[in-house]
Amino acid sequence: MTDTPKTKPEVDFYEGPEPTELVIIDLEEGTGAEAYPGATVEVHYLGVDFETGEEFDSSWNRGQSIEFPLSGLIKGWQDGIPGMKVGGRRQLICPPHLAYGPAGGGHRLSGRTLTFVIDLLGVN
Signal sequence span per UniProt (predicted)? Predict the structure, then answer.
């Protein structure tokens, strides 16, 4: 755990066309343990729709972090969190094939490019 919890992030608008591959932007480098593929991670996160900027999910709004195995998450998180260190904050921009699949896929976010800001709090 980090000593001083960060506050809920603001998402900066991404300059340029909507990405077709995963974009990883380290907003703050961590100094703790490094996440690895298949790890169980504890995170705070914020998710917004790339096109509209509308927030669709936030652990900050629920007032508690969440812990889960990377293997159970969307491909963009499976690929984008390993290498991140505890205490870091990373922005991931996940095109549909790395998020919830193409439009009509059955999830309310299918077909959408999604932006996440993730604070890594722990690695198990």
Answer: none
Catalytic-residue membership of 93: no
The label of the residue with tokens 């998180």 reads 77
Q: Which two tokens stand for residue 31?
A: 């100094």
Tens of pLDDT along the chain (124 residues) come to 444 568 889 888 788 899 999 999 999 999 999 999 999 999 999 999 999 999 999 999 999 999 999 999 999 999 999 999 999 999 999 999 999 999 999 999 999 999 999 999 999 9
Token digits of residue 28: 């703050």
CATH dotted code for 23-123: 3.10.50.40
Identify residue 97 by its one-letter amino acid code.
Answer: H
Question: 100 an active-site residue?
Answer: yes
Q: Is 49 a catalytic residue?
A: no
